[in-house]
Amino acid sequence: MVIRRLLLYLKPYQKRFWIAFAALLLATGADVVLPVIVSHFIDHYLVPRTFDRDTLLLLGGSFLLLQFLSAGLHYYQLFSFQTIAQWVIRQLRIDVFAKVQHLGLSFFDRTPDGSLVSRITNDTEAIKDMYINVLSSFMQNFIFIIGVFIAMFVLDVRLALWCLILLPVSLTLMQGYRRLSSKVYRISRQKLAQMNAKLNESIQGMNIIQSLRQEARLRREFGSLNEEHYRAALKNVKLFGLMLRPATQLLSVLATVAVLNFFGFESFMGTVKIGVLYGFLNLLDRIFEPVNQMMMRLSQLQQAVVSAERVFELLDRTEYAPQKQGEKNPVITEGRIEFANVSFSYDGKNDVLKNISFVAEPGQTVALVGHTGSGKSSIINLLMRFYPVERGEIKIDGHPLQTYDDQELRSKIGLVLQDPFLFVGDVKSNIRLHNESITDEQIKEAAQFVQAAPFIEKLPRGYEEPVVERGATFSSGQRQLISFARTMAIHPKILVLDEATASVDTETEEAIQAALQKMRQGRTTIAIAHRLSTIQDADLILVLHRGEIVERGSHQELLAMKGLYHKMYLLQTYGSAVEV
Amino acid sequence: MSIFKDLWWFFKLEKKSYSLGILTLVMLALLHLFAPYAVRVVVDKIEAGTLTVEDLLLWTTLSLVVGLATYCFGFLWRIMLFGASNRLGKLLRNRLYEHFTRMSPRFFHQRRTGDLMAHATNDIQAIVATAGEGVLTLADSIITGGIVVFTMAFFIDWKLTVIALLPMPLMAWATSKYGSMLHKRFHKAQEAFSHTNDKVQENISGVRVIKAFGQEEYEKKEFKKLLDDVVEKNIAVARIDALFDPTIILVVGVSFFLTVAYGSFGVVSGEITIGELTQFTIYLGHLIWPMLAFGWLFNIVERGRASYDRVEALLHIPPDIADRPDAVDQVPSGEVEYRLKSFSYPESDKMVLKDIFVRVKQGETLGIVGKTGSGKTTFLRLLLREFDAEPGSIRIGGIPVTDYKLLRLRQAIGYVPQDHVLFSATVAENIAFGKPEATQEEIEEVARLACIHEDILHFEHGYETLVGERGVTLSGGQKQRISIARALLLDPEILILDDSLSAVDAKTEHLILEALRKNRKQKTTLISAHRLSAVEQADQIIVLENGRVIERGTHQELMQQNGWYKEMYERQQLESLVAEGGGTVGHPTTSPLS
Question: Do A195 and B410 touch (CB under 8 A)?
């Protein structure tokens, strides 16, 4: 099943594939014809000692020509199969990557980053090994064996028929080895995995092991796993020795002896063609190597199948990101946001949002405050359409959120994340983000607007300053300013702010606050605030607790209520005095 | 090839296996000569018409015997050589593990777990390959190559041998040339691959930004570009890689041609027989493998060399915390005393602790509080000798901790760390980790003390429930309580709780502390905490800031000082009110602290 699906990936390259296959056939043909020429020479010219110069030149010439042809064809087929494998894996990788791009955040929340990366890169790499090594090796060796048999039939039909017995014998050997070895192999892999797990765990918990004085016991436990692994490995060596190379060597001796006897007895009854004898011995000598080769590749095949299963499992996922519904193409012009009785749950069991209703009029700022886990981020996740709205309704400018086109939504709602994420590239590319319609001039304007320009222009290479992985060379404040500029460059109608908790130096902090103030002007803003001081001028503050809006109003109204907001406010003024 | 010199100690250790293995290889090489010889004799007799049934029977029997011997020898050397090399892997792995168990936390902090794992897995695998396949290839190509060439030259015809071997150096030259070209291109291909790896990593970490800015299509395009680069670089590799086989085919083919052509003259002039010529060509076939193997050997040895150096370097790092030669062999007990002028971590100038003078009488409880990074954990780690401070600055029962045997010191101290470490085993085994022989009653008793017994009973398999990656997922609070139970089981002279109640709710914290007080009379307890309620009942509390003691006293005394402690205490009370919802949604407002 998995293998068939893997082979389907060859379809776009079938022309090249079949040409390479034909080259392989021809090359193999040449390989088997070569000993036939030599045997013809021995029988018809060397033994009777009749040397005709022209014929000999022809024979010698065609031998060399065929030899070069075979080498050339082999080069072509080897290169072609490797190239095809590269293209196939490229396609597979593109498919998985594209698939992942369209999966929803609910998928990412549940899947560890590491395992996802390893599926897209390492697992596909293991599959590549199969295309390069296993596929071509199997075909080549299979064709070679067939070629050898054809040559045998040309030399002597009766003897060739007898030699056919070799096929079921080696096949049985192969099957037997596969069955036995897969069990042993699995045990040895398993022991190795257990050993590594133990090692990993021990390294991470060594101080506990030491403080509980269990070093000796764990050494013993590790030692016994190590011993078991060694035994399994040795068993594998034994199986290999019993059933593979030494066994095929024995088989080859038996076949040689049989051929000798065949000709020996033949010679008692009449004359024997020495050339045919020579040809058979030569062919028999060559037939066992392909069998060995194929057996060696079996474990690689198994590994590739396991990897392919994992990749296909990912390709078959259906947790897509929420998509546009309906035929209409509404446009965001005002930026009025309305939540009506929205409830939401990530796992289908516990509601993280319960009956959330509020309206943000165009240009207004609505601030969300509350303890960790109160549901602030979930509101933003829904508004950004990272998750589908299941109960209740969210409307922008009177149209349900799900009727908007992705493009419209992404270009009109600007998100500023708590942890500003920078991409590898330069400052400019981080502000522009592939959007070719943004000019360099506009990038500078945006940077100017959020007051990022002063520090960017001080960089050695200004807007071309390289950005390394995760923007590690910039301070967290600078990263925030760059991400502000990125958001402002698209001139969003609606601004979604997830205020950073990370502390930055006072100077940058002032720049950030001033920038935020400016950014909010004329835009509907939904802001998560950790510091109440930054949202005192908000038009509406929603106080969330365990998924519910427990208080709402302006800063002054909320303080007068002497409720949760009041306590939080006290706590924060305390906080600045005590400083934690 | 110097790696073989470095591994000599092991070859000596496994003298028997290696000498027997190599001897078997020699025997095998000799036996391999037999079949072509038998063929030659029989072919010659057939040609001459002098073959008899007896001859045939004789050579058949001999061939079969030799064939069986080949089979046995082929089996034998594998067991000998590969058995030994796997034993080397086992040995090195055990050594490495043992070495790890002797290292102090500093060693593990300086290195990434992934790197240490790589040494124990990939590096050892490469060394095993050197001691197994490496030795085999070296021995086999020398033995087989030598014997075959010798036989061809001395028993058949030396002139023919020279002619046949003429093209062979070409093959050696070509393959080594390809090898170095391949190496460079392969490196570039690897680099391209690692770029795609980085891209995928970035894409997945930045998924929110990508979705928020609708960048999915661009990301796909960029990924495609990177993949095109990978394909291009790999095709460059394939261009060279595909040269190997055809070159060998060609060289061997030419060699065959020369043999048959030149040999025919010999046959005509009567210098050699047709049988000998046939035999010769079979020998020629036997030479291909040693030629190929030599190139391969280089590869194995190169990798083995680098890996062996890495593992050796690791094994030669001495443990920085160890017993003194005249260490006291007695379990420490009595007053805990700090007289510490200053402490900074090795390879760091930053002072972590300064002027710490604290005495904790036997049976007392010390509370340590302060901001994150104020030195609380360092304070506790010094007592455990995870790091060593100035000699004599920390004493238990009047004797410096550095003068006790490490094992004895650890016997006296029960340690519950900040980051709770549990092992992949059952809950019961985890609690009994420090005392594997503990009875179920003992285990349950400490579980009750740590208020985790009820939780465990609710797990699917109770105390036999598996913990860890493949087991049940525990909450932070549950992990902490299991860690506490684990430490309590040893009934230690001194118990250290390093902020180990942080994830436990206030009510449970109170119960656990109560239980500790009842069960640990006469025993010393050191508690560090963020939440002040955990140290409220301590006999003595110190407040650390930037490594110095800024306030000290009992809870009552500290509350009167109007300092950091008091402010923090009030603030935390307010915090717990907010966490409870501040009473606005009808939740009970009673705080366990008030």
Answer: no
Structure confidence by residue, pLDDT tens digits, A144-154: 888 889 888 98
CA-CA-CA-CA torsion sign (B375, B378, B379, B380): positive
d(CA B430, CA B464): 10
The whole-number pLDDT of residue A1 equals: 80
Q: Are residues B197 and B135 in the same domain?
A: no
Could you tell me which chain A residue has the CA closest to the CA of B34?
A253
- Shortest Cα–Cα distance, B60 to chain A (Å): 6
**Could you list the residue range(s) of the whole structural domain that residue B83 is in?**
1-157+296-320
Q: Are residues B92 and B190 in the same domain?
A: no
pTM score above 0.80: no
Is the CB of residue A540 less than 8 Å from the CB of residue A367?
Answer: yes
User: Is pLDDT of B488 > 90?
Assistant: yes
What ipTM was reported for this prediction? 0.81
List of chain A residues whose C-beta atoms are within 8 Å of the C-beta of residue B417: 207-208
A232 and B114 Cβ atoms separated by less than 8 Å: no
Cα angle, residue B320 at apex, residues B315 and B321 outer, rounded to 5°: 120
- Domains within chain A, CATH numbers bracketed: 2-315 (1.20.1560.10), 337-578 (3.40.50.300)
Taking only the tens place, the pLDDT of each residue in B373-392 is 788 999 999 999 988 988 88
- Gap between the Cα atoms of A103 and A315, Å rounded: 10
One domain, residues B189 and B315: no
Q: Are B341 and B264 part of one and the same domain?
A: no
> Which pair of structure tokens corresponds to residue B594?
């008030």
- A47 — contact with chain B (CB < 8 Å)? yes
The H-assigned helical ranges of B49-82 are: 53-77
Reply yes or no on whether the pLDDT at A540 is more than 90: yes
The residue that leads in pLDDT, A471 or B501, is B501
Give the pairing of strands B494-498 and B524-529.
Answer: parallel
CB contact under 8 A, A571 and B102: no
Q: Which of residues 67-126 of A touch B (CB under 8 A)?
A: 67-68, 70-72, 74-75, 78-79, 82-83, 86-87, 90, 93-94, 97-98, 100-102, 105, 108, 113, 116-117, 120-121, 125
pLDDT for A171 equals 84
Residue with the bigger pLDDT between B155 and A373: it is: B155
Residue B54 sits in a domain whose CATH number is 1.20.1560.10
Most A-contacting residue of B55, B56, B70, B96 (CB-CB within 10 A), to test interface: B56
Q: pLDDT tens across A285-308, in order?
A: 778 878 878 877 776 787 788 889
Measured CA to CA, the distance from residue A106 to residue A467 in angstroms comes to 29
Say whether both B528 and B393 belong to one domain.
Answer: yes
Burial annotation A195-228 (CB, 10 A radius, 16+ → b, else e): beebbbbbbbbbbbbbbbbbbeebbeebeebbeb
pLDDT per residue as tens digits for the range A330-351: 999 999 999 999 999 987 878 8
pLDDT tens-digit readout, B143-156:
988 888 898 888 88
Beta carbons within 10 angstroms of residue B208's beta carbon:
19
Min Cα distance A420 → chain B (Å) is 9
- Name the residue of chain B whose CA is nearest to A35's CA: B256
> Which chain A residues have a beta carbon less than 8 Å from that of B216?
101-102
- Rounded to the nearest angstrom, the minimum Cα separation between A3 and chain B is 23
Cβ <8 Å between B46 and A567: no
User: Do B547 and B353 touch, CB atoms closer than 8 A?
Assistant: yes
pLDDT in the model for residue B177: 85
Q: Do B78 and A240 touch (CB under 8 A)?
A: yes
What is the rounded CA–CA span in Å between residue A277 and residue A281? 6
Domain count, chain B: 3
H or E segment at A215? helix A215-243
